[in-house]
């Protein structure tokens, strides 16, 4: 093979690699939504809590996406109850997993002319804090609870 053929093949491979990386960057890991409901929560405070009420009151946030976020928070409560984290490190592992699931919804928000912006960020963070306190983690740091957030 001559140098021109090798150079052409290398360029084609680089372009293909770029397109694959770009596609994967935009296709974040999609988490399967758990089949959960508030009635599955044992903690009475959280069972009666109105998750994401500020987002529900604002038509900027599509209801079905707020439902998905709520589902993630309900699942977090159930995981805390089932796994019974003994310290903040174990709690943070659970909250980071939930935060990553919310991160995975970012593109869906954009596709529906919405986003997890300042107001939503504050509402979601507040709910993580309420959850931590409801399960006796009063010293949980709110920023650490949601440290893996993209929003």
Kindly describe this structure.
- The protein is an all-alpha fold.
- It has 2 domains: 1-30; 33-145, no CATH class.
- The protein is built from 8 helices and no strands.
- The chain has helices at 3-26, 44-47, 53-56, 63-83, 88-103, 106-111, 118-134, 142-145.
- The chain is elongated and about 75 Å long.
Secondary structure layout:
Layout: H1 3-26, H2 44-47, H3 53-56, H4 63-83, H5 88-103, H6 106-111, H7 118-134, H8 142-145
Pfam families: DUF5713
In short:
The protein has 151 residues and is mainly alpha-helical. The protein contains 8 helices and no strands. It holds the Pfam family DUF5713.
Comma- or semicolon-separated keywords:
151 residues; mainly alpha; 2 domains; 64% helix; 0% strand; elongated; DUF5713
Shape: elongated
| Total separate domains | 2
How much is the average pLDDT?
89
Structural class: mainly alpha
CA-to-CA gap between the ends? Answer: 50 Å
How would a crystallographer describe the biggest sheet? Answer: none
Order of helices and strands: HHHHHHHH
Number of strands: 0
Radius of gyration: 20 Å
**What is the number of helices?**
8
Which segments are poorly predicted (pLDDT under 50) over 5 or more consecutive residues? Answer: 24-29
Portion of residues in beta strands equals under 5%
* Helix amount: 55-70%
């Amino acid at each position: 093979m001559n140098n021109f053929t090798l150079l052409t093949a290398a360029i084609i491979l680089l372009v293909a690699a770029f397109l694959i990386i770009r596609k994967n960057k935009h296709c974040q890991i999609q988490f399967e939504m758990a089949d959960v409901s508030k009635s599955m929560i044992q903690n009475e405070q959280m069972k009666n809590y109105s998750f994401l009420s500020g987002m529900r009151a604002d038509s900027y946030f599509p209801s079905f996406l707020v439902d998905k976020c709520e589902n993630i928070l309900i699942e977090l409560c159930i995981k805390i109850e089932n796994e019974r984290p003994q310290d903040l490190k174990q709690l943070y592992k659970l909250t980071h997993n939930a935060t990553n699931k919310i991160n995975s919804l970012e593109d869906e928000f954009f596709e529906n002319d919405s986003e997890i912006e300042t107001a939503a960020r504050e509402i979601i963070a507040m709910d993580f804090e309420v959850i931590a306190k409801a399960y006796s983690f009063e010293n949980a740091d709110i920023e650490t609870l949601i440290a893996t957030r993209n929003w």
